[in-house]
Amino acid sequence: MEQIIGMRIKSLRVERGLTLAGLGALSKLSPGFLSQVERGKSTPSIATLAIIAQALDVAPRSFFEDDRESVYIVDSGAEAVDDHDSLPRGYRPLSPILESNRLSVILVTVQPRESSGPLRVLSGEEIIFVLAGKLEIVIGDESHRLEAGDSIHLDAGLPRQWTNASDALCTMLWGRVGSRLDFGIRRGRGGIGKKGAADRAEVESFYPTV
Known about the structure:
The protein is an alpha+beta fold. 20% of the residues lie in helices and 23% in strands. Helix 2 (20-27) packs across helix 3 (31-38).
């Protein structure tokens, strides 16, 4: 188990372009100790793992499993997600919903007159590509109207929200690259709903979540 944990810590550290010294500076742990942990020569406590996880911006459970997939296929006949604990209805993930992922892409079907509500300010970048229908995106004080074939790339750190103001369905690809797989949908009136007891529109940080 020590070797598995060590390998996962090293893998996550290298993914982030961190040296042992860099991780040591973020975690306040010595590079020598971290090197021993990565080589499976030292067994860190739960508290120490939590500190390292925070420095790497992952959940501690990420050290105990390698949940990344080198190939991820979504069947064309798959239905949009209606009962996922972390995704509003009408969302279909096209990439694994994993905390280790930096890229996340979701196919979204927006109902007529449906709005996301204000999206949380996040780190990273987003791109929206409208496949069908029309979509209005408000970024700060500016409003942008997109139609099928149009796309927009934006900083996820900006205040923003989108609305389908038409009477027809809108289908879009919503992609994001950032430090966490988190689409930041707030709950509230006008937001996207979910069915059943889990009827809420807020997406926390995927772990779970998207």
